[in-house]
Specification:
The protein contains eight helices and eleven strands. It has 244 residues and is α/β, with parallel strands linked by helices.
């Protein structure tokens, strides 16, 4: 039986956007489940081993989300700052899991906390990536009212990423929520303009607009399906690709 050829990445450098919910286990009630984090780390390592430089933007919704806090009486700016700090906790958890399997990492934050992470410095981030390190960007943009999706689009633009990979638990962008509407259809490809016009909620408008302005393709795919990230890196039709 012929051995399958290893997949070859079509991308030199990507930004991988992970939501905070990616690290949690809703069944057990754990906000950060070490087993789930280890699975995420293995997926990242497999992608990195294809020769692609990987930077990660991590969310904090598994711990705290500013918009939810506002609905409960917390000032929106304060809530967003709390959410930014939550992303640092997730970033450190992911760093620990990656380094345990031999992936050298650096955590960079948009809000300085030098005792536990580096401040975000573009040239330093590029240097780390060129040396084969995986860089985890935390604290979003460092500003309230901006989501980590916007931060991912911003960092992708700043470091000259070839694509933004949006990791989700569904296999792409649909005409409607596939969990609520079984007849919803998946887009295989989509333009930035259509994504904005149809107000698709997979990413916020600012993130779509920034990627459109800087011509950064967005791949939206099921991160937890084995082999999906490798296939997406190889240029296969996985999930939904948003381009010009």
């Amino acid at each position: 039986m012929a051995r399958q050829k290893p997949l070859k990445s079509q991308y030199r450098r990507i930004v991988l956007k992970l939501s905070g919910e990616t690290l949690q286990n809703k069944r057990s009630g754990l906000s950060i489940d070490p087993g789930v984090v280890a699975t995420v780390a293995r997926r990242v390592k497999s992608a990195r081993d294809m020769g692609t430089q990987i930077a990660i933007v991590i969310g904090g919704g598994n711990i705290f989300r500013g918009m939810n806090g506002e609905s409960r009486g917390i000032d929106r700016v304060v809530g967003d700052q709390m959410g930014m700090l939550a992303t640092v906790i997730n970033g450190l958890a992911l760093q620990d899991a990656l380094e345990k399997i031999g992936v050298e990492t650096r955590v960079q934050t948009a809000i300085e906390m030098r005792q536990i992470a580096e401040p975000f410095i573009r040239r330093r981030a590029l240097r780390h990536l060129s040396k084969g390190r995986t860089v985890i960007f935390a604290c979003g943009t460092g500003n309230p009212f901006f989501t980590t999706d916007s931060a991912a689009a911003l960092r992708a633009s700043e470091i000259g990423a070839d694509a933004l990979f949006k990791a989700t638990k569904v296999d792409g962008i649909y005409t409607a929520d596939p969990l609520r509407f079984p007849n919803a259809k998946r887009y295989r490809t989509l333009t930035y303009i259509k994504a904005l016009q149809r107000q698709l909620k997979v990413m916020d408008a600012a993130a779509f607009a920034l990627c459109m302005e800087n011509k950064i393709p967005i791949a939206v795919f099921d991160f937890f399906k084995p082999g999906n990230i490798e296939r997406a890196l190889a240029g296969e039709s996985v999930g939904t690709l948003v381009t010009e």
